[in-house]
Amino acid sequence: MFYFDWTYFLIIPGLLLGMWAQHKVNSAYQEYSRVGTRLGRPASEVVAELLRRNGNSVVRVGRVGGQLTDHYDPGKELLNLSEGVYGSGSVAALGIAAHEAGHAMQKLEGYAPLKLRTAAVPVVNIGSRTSTPLFLLGLVFSWQPLVYIGIALFSLSVLFSLITLPVEFDASNRAIRMLTEGGYVTESERSGVKAVLNAAALTYVASAVTSILSLLRLLMIARSRDRD
Ligand SMILES: [Zn+2]
Asked: Which residues are catalytic?
């Protein structure tokens, strides 16, 4: 994370998993953004209809620059679709847009893990800004309590990456369910949607694994100082 020692190798499996997941996301997106759906309707239109059909009338659909920058903003009740998704009727575009609609439905239905995740954001932000400086100061001044405070603050972001997992898996499940129920995708299109969304989910698994390994690393560094 900040200085190099042998414990750094502990994180490497997480980083490799992350790179592999990113590669899978890119290749699934490349592949399925070229496969059109039978209906051929743009994702922006489909997603607006999905939301209405599922009783969500508060969310507006907008456009955002960049590639794969699609996200749902719960504060503004805005579902932002990226340039490549907004007007596209591809299998990938429908899957990505419906996944974001899944998040909007989670908010509407008060899905508990999402509430927990949203509530945790301010605390996690403070934790991630302060954990490394405190940990380092603790090491520099050989003051172990500060080292462990740094680790405790870091573990907040580990928890956050773990709460993110059910939220993301659930949004993808909702996406597939809504697209299937509404007859927006055929059987074979649905497996394309799954391939894209599973690859995206893997990136969240990789960051959770990496943050757990980073936590272990900090603990090992702290324990070796205990013995000194
Ligand atoms: Zn998501």
From this structure: 100
**Which residues, in sequence order, are CB contacts of 163 under 8 Å at separation 6+?**
113, 116, 117, 120
Write the pLDDT tens digit of every residue in 154-168.
999 999 999 999 999
Report residue 202 as tokens. Answer: 């893997």
* DSSP bridge pairs for 72: 79
In 79-186, alpha helices (H): 83-86, 91-109, 112-140, 144-181
Distance, CA 215 to ligand 1 centroid (Å)? 24
> Residue 204 C-alpha to ligand 1 middle, in angstroms?
9
pTM tops 0.85, yes or no:
yes
Q: Which residues pair with 62 in a beta bridge?
A: 80
Residue ranges of the domains in the chain?
A: 10-227
- Determine the distance separating the centroid of ligand 1 and the alpha carbon of 171, expressed in angstroms: 6
